[in-house]
Design brief:
Layout (H helix, E strand, L loop, with lengths): L9 E5 L8 E6 L12 E3 L11 H11 L5 E10 L6 H18 L3 E6 L2 H10 L6 E3 L6 H9 L3 E4 L6 H7 L7 E3 L8 H12 L3 H16 L7
Parallel strand pairs: 1-2, 2-3, 3-4, 4-5, 5-6, 6-7, 7-8
């Protein structure tokens, strides 16, 4: 009798605590003291919630927790031209977080809305040396190609329910793909099913590839059981 192999589905970016038996990186934009819990986290100042009067204090607090062993990445951070936060303030916060990520040698998880030119420019200007993940990617194939050529990773989530994004995913090299649930109601199994169908591979193959990509980003001991 043949036994079914255990397939580990990595959720690279979620706002919910991971379900038992699942591996996920939970994002925190506040309450950074939660990193002491036995889980994996990314922590950062989301552009939606940045305020001038508290920015320096929040950056200082972020810096205190950034090197914690349970913190696997800095972010989500970045630029958003749709939200109400002053754009100059956003750029100041983003620049500080690029610098912090390079200081602690941890990847960046990027939130970007209509500001890809500015984000790419800031990463180059800062001489960024750490891996970069553009989370929740839902743009076109041309931009996907540009980001991959820069060496960056694209994380796909609920937008894969759109056929347009399935076509975009199919153009991305497998070694630059990650998957996530973010704040969606669809679970990580559903995301993997959509992605596997779009890529014409089985879930086992896709799972192993995403694990390899995560090792390239976070290191060989990134999975904490």
């Amino acid at each position: 009798m043949q036994t079914k192999s255990f397939v580990l589905l990595l959720d690279i970016h979620t706002h919910q605590p991971p379900q038992p038996g699942n591996w996920a990186i939970q994002n925190l934009y506040q309450d950074f003291e939660q990193v002491h819990l036995p889980s994996n986290f990314s922590i950062g100042l989301h552009p939606w919630y940045i305020q001038q009067q508290s920015l320096q204090q929040e950056l200082q607090l972020l810096g205190q927790y950034a090197a914690h062993a349970h913190v696997l990445a800095i972010g989500e951070c970045g630029l958003d031209k749709v939200c109400a936060t002053d754009f100059v303030l956003q750029t100041a916060a983003f620049a500080a977080q690029i610098q912090l990520a390079n200081q602690v040698n941890k990847p960046l998880v990027i939130h970007c809305v209509r500001a890809y030119t500015e984000v790419l420019g800031m990463l180059r200007q800062a001489n960024n040396r750490v891996p970069v993940i553009f989370h929740g990617f839902n743009k076109n194939g041309q931009l996907a190609k540009q980001l991959v050529e820069e060496g960056y990773y694209l994380s796909f989530g609920k937008a894969l329910q759109q056929q347009r994004l399935q076509h975009v995913l199919a153009t991305v090299p497998l070694n630059h793909i990650l998957l996530e649930t973010d704040d969606a109601t669809i679970d990580i199994t559903g995301i993997y099913q959509l992605a596997a169908s779009a890529l014409s591979v089985d879930i086992d193959t896709l799972s192993l590839q995403v694990q390899q990509n995560a090792v390239a980003i976070f290191g060989t001991d990134y999975i904490k059981q």
